[in-house]
Amino acid sequence: MARPRKNTKRKKRKARVTEQAKCRFCREKTSQVDYKDIATLGKMITNQGKLFSRKRSGCCARHQRSLTTAIKRARFMGLMPYVG
User: Fold this and answer.
1) Could you tell me the end-to-end alpha-carbon distance of the chain, in angstroms, rounded to an integer?
2) Which residue in 35, 27, 38 sits closest to 60, CA to CA?
3) Which backbone phi and psi does 45 adopt, to 5 degrees?
4) Is residue 77 within 8 Å of 70, Cβ to Cβ?
5) Run of H or E residues at 56
6) Which of 5, 10, 53, 57 is the most buried (most CB within 10 A)?
7) How far is it, in rounded angstroms, from Cα 11 to Cα 39?
8) pLDDT 10s digits, 20-73
C-alpha cells in the first residue's frame, strides 16, 4: 500500500549576494608579479614551501599563474627556498 503524501511546503531561501573580494594584485593594479619581491611571495606559500591555492591566497586566475611563475623563478635564482 502506498502512503499518502504529506502536504509539506518548502521555504524558499533568499539568494545571498556577496561581493567578491578583489585580488591583491588587481587592487594594486599590478600587471605582473615581481619575482624579486620576496616579502609578497613569502605570504603566498606555506611553512613547508607549498603554494597556497587560489581560494586560500585570494588571487584571480591570471595573477595566480603569474605568482606561480614568480615563485619558481625566485627559487631557481636562490632567493627563496624550495622547502621550508
Assistant:
1) 66
2) 27
3) -125, 160
4) no
5) helix 54-57
6) 57
7) 49
8) 678 899 999 988 999 999 999 999 999 999 999 999 999 999 999 999 999 999
CA distance 74 to 45: 12
Question: How many CB atoms neighbour CB 45 within 10 A?
Answer: 18
pTM of the model: 0.72
- Which burial class, exposed, middle or buried, applies to 35 when counting CB atoms under 10 A from its CB (0-12, 13-18, 19+)? buried
Return the bridge partners of 51, or none.
45
**What is d(CA 59, CA 56) in angstroms, rounded to the nearest whole number?**
8
For residue 45, give the 3-state DSSP assignment: strand
**Grid cell in block for residue 75:** 627559487
Q: How far is CA 1 from CA 5, 6, 7, 8, 61, in A?
A: 12, 15, 19, 21, 56
The residue type at 27: R
